[in-house]
Design goal:
Helices cover 40% and strands 20% of the residues. It is of the alpha/beta class. It folds into 3 domains: 99 residues, 3-Layer(aba) Sandwich (Cobalt-precorrin-4 Transmethylase, domain 1), CATH 3.40.1010; 82 residues, Rossmann fold, CATH 3.40.50.11270; 91 residues, 4-hydroxy-3-methylbut-2-enyl diphosphate reductase, catalytic domain (Cobalt-precorrin-4 Transmethylase, domain 1, 3-Layer(aba) Sandwich). The strands form 3 sheets. Strands 1-12-10-11 form a 4-stranded parallel beta sheet, sandwiched between helices. A 4-stranded parallel beta sheet has the order 3-2-4-5. A 4-stranded parallel beta sheet has the order 7-6-8-9, with helices on both faces. β8, α6 and β9 form a beta-alpha-beta unit. The longest helix is centred in the N-terminal third of the chain and has 17 residues. The structure holds iron/sulfur cluster. Iron/sulfur cluster binds next to α1, α4 and α7.
Length: 289
């Protein structure tokens, strides 16, 4: 049995930057608040919490002190509320997310109906929706457009949550073209990192017998990678850590592929790989069933 590890595993640029900024704050201040989880990875959030980063659900829970904003960004309304309090803001919004926000804002200001392709409950999408203004809609995929009842002659702008799959995004673009808008502006706001990981996951899934995607079960980009792998290879599994590995998965497997979401620390990926290698050396899969 061999292991095939994706070239790009561990944190993406935006997540690494957010975690480093939070660590810097904790070094200086000793404690700080984070509005929602700073990244979608339970192990990292727990580690930062032990060092003084307290996760709050609403800014009403923090009147003073330091408030760290996650790489997913916040809406203009929340930013306005924060500015009314005596909070020191540390904004780790990823520059690529910021770019998507400014596309949403400019389309909204120019009067376009703004269609955002993404997960309506994700914090990044909620903020993008607010940036886009009153004529904004969020759709998960091309089927989601039906509810909008698009008529010919509309002026439509479309952009994407940064971690969406390109195929899904293009599917929505094609469906909008079919609706014959008068004017269509397309902003490809899918992050390069997400595209590279998805393409690599697709390639590896075709070459292995078992595919493991390491990452948070609450992480949008990890879930997307898992969907990409699962479409190609039924024996694909999402694991948060090595503790999620199960012995029965490895029956009759010659090659195992491993990839990770953008918010998964490389140390966890290496641990998963090490546990599998050690099990193989002793030829006894002692993992939990
Ligand atoms: S996946 Fe891309 S957009 Fe999201 S935080 Fe990472 S670098 Fe930024």
């Amino acid at each position: 049995m061999r292991l095939k590890l994706a070239k790009k595993v561990g944190f993406c640029f935006g997540v690494r930057r957010a975690v480093e900024m939070a660590e810097e704050v904790l070094k200086k201040e000793g404690k700080a608040y984070s509005l929602g989880s700073i990244i979608h990875n339970k192990q990292v959030v727990e580690g930062l919490s032990e060092r003084g980063l307290e996760v709050i659900k609403s800014i009403d829970e923090a009147d003073s002190g330091v408030l760290v904003i996650s790489s997913h960004g916040i809406s203009p309304d929340v930013a306005g509320e924060i500015s009314k309090r005596s909070l020191k803001l540390v904004d780790t919004t990823c520059p690529f997310v910021r770019n998507a926000q400014s596309s949403a804002r400019s389309l909204g200001e120019e009067g376009y109906m703004v269609i955002i392709v993404g997960d309506v409950n994700h914090p990044e999408v909620k903020a993008l929706y607010d940036f886009a203004g009153k004529k904004a809609h969020v759709v998960k995929d091309a089927k989601g457009l039906k509810a909008l009842k698009l008529k010919p002659g509309e002026r439509i702008g479309i952009l994407s949550q940064t971690t969406q799959s390109m195929d899904n995004f293009l599917g929505v673009v094609r469906a909008i073209i079919d609706a014959k808008p008068e004017d269509l502006r397309v902003f490809n706001t899918i992050c390069k990192d997400a595209q590279v990981r998805q393409a690599a996951a697709r390639d590896i899934s075709r070459e292995v017998d078992l595919m493991l995607v390491v990452g948070g079960k609450n992480s949008a980009n990890t879930k997307r990678l898992f969907e990409v792998c699962k479409k190609i290879l039924r024996r694909s599994y999402l694991v948060e850590t090595e503790l999620d590995l199960r012995s029965q998965w490895f029956k009759d497997v010659s090659v195992v592929g491993i990839t990770s979401g953008a918010s998964t620390p490389e140390t966890i990926v290496r641990r998963v790989a090490r546990v599998i290698k050690n099990e193989l050396k002793t030829k006894s899969i002692r993992l939990r069933r």
